[in-house]
Amino acid sequence: MIADPNSFSPLNASGVSANTVSAMLYTTLLYQDEDNTTTGGLASEYELDPNGGTLTIRDGATCADGTEITPTVVADSLQAFVENSRAKEIVFGPGDPSFTPDDAAGTLSIELEQPWADVERGLTLTETGIVCPAGLEDLEATAAGEVEGAFSGAYTLTANQPGVTIDFALRESGYTFPEYATPVEGVPADKVTFAIMADYNAMANGLLTDTLDYATLVGESKSRVAGEEGFETSIYPATAMFVMFNQREGMPMADADTRRAVAQAISREAFNDAATDGEGEILSSYVPSEVACAYTEDDAVIPQDAEAASEVLDGLEISLTGTQSTGPNGAGNSYIAQALGEAGAEVDLRNLDNTTWATELDSKPESWDVTVMSLLNMSRTQYGGLSQITGSSPEDGGRNSTGVKREDIQEKVDAAMAETDEAARCGIYEEIQKELLQDAAIVPLSTLPAQPSTAEGFSIRQVNGTVSMMTLRITG
């Protein structure tokens, strides 16, 4: 694990580490399956459409303290998610959903205030993991990992040494694993220990010296393990990387011409070389090409023009922040700083660990002007990316770090979410992506290829471009 999680609660999880931990500790109603489908988790049956639907809660499910997970328990947890999580709009849209549990029938009905086509995919997000009653009674202690009764998932937290290790133990009963179309071979581990390692080469060393059984590698560390006898590896686009701007009133990037100048200073190809050694997919949007309705043409992308960029950026002070996982030791961030510096800007670059970066991005908006977003789009949906640049800001409980709501874009999103024809929906999303590109709301860069790597006797599976911790197994 690249950094300590910011929380042990799915309600305020942010970043790769926290989402990994939440997947271990909390079950979700649904899970993503192959070919962009979903499968049951806590829900044994479900019928959902853009207006909501009904889910049957699986018999025999319990919390870690033995409390039965009834439809009422699920409804209370989802209501807490609505009230506390910045991912609420990804799942249920901007309106207020209503939850009607029927404990006698074992069902939960969800009614959305306005149509939201992504609700089924949204209910697979780790942030929607069911927090049990004991956890809801003390959200602060739950976030600290101090309420064992909060857990609804297959594992419980047994120890946490910040900066060192996090230990989990498999529960004896009361949990379920997803019912994947292709069954997962092997058995779940009775105990799982995550080592906190801020360097991917250190992870590769751990694999090669038999001190680690699994790690997801990026950068040059991938080649050290790929092809080595005794290891299984694969590649997937872990994140979509793009430049994002703090557009709050009074900030320098509130000006569209300044943002366009930043775009003109940057070469996507040079960034890709720096961040991924040229292995990433060059992007034309905020999502990679395998996401439905992704814009993949270059027509709307602002072309590089260093001379034009310097006319605007010369002498401008820019605070640039980014995660160290943007290439080896934040090499992608360093390239952006160099490109802006060559255009005459005075750049203050801060390369931060992933958890600190994700936290500061939203909690300290005064601290940054430009960031290289490394977007972990767990839902693999258009709005999973759009929610970072449109809709509610963190100050209002949302994910939009730019601070500008873009109501015109939101109106188009609402139309797309209500559209039942896929081609027509993609047409709307194409308009949205082109408009954001021309306004320099973002500067698309590349994907970050990642390599899940398992030692002999262990396995893990990618599902729709993300690694599912629920598929981690001992196979030998």
TrEMBL record:
Ranges for region Disordered: 386-405
Gene3D superfamilies in the cross-refs: Dipeptide-binding Protein, Domain 3, Periplasmic binding protein-like II
Compositional bias ranges of the Polar residues kind: 386-403
A Pfam family: SBP_bac_5
InterPro entries for this protein: Peptide/Ni-bd (IPR030678), SBP_5 (IPR039424), SBP_5_dom (IPR000914)
Keywords, comma-separated and alphabetical: Signal
Sequence ranges assigned to domain Solute-binding protein family in this UniProt record: 39-377
SUPFAM superfamilies: Periplasmic binding protein-like II
PANTHER family named in the record: D,D-DIPEPTIDE-BINDING PERIPLASMIC PROTEIN DDPA-RELATED, PERIPLASMIC BINDING COMPONENT OF ABC TRANSPORTER
Name of the molecule in the record: ABC transporter substrate-binding protein
Organism name: Brevibacterium salitolerans
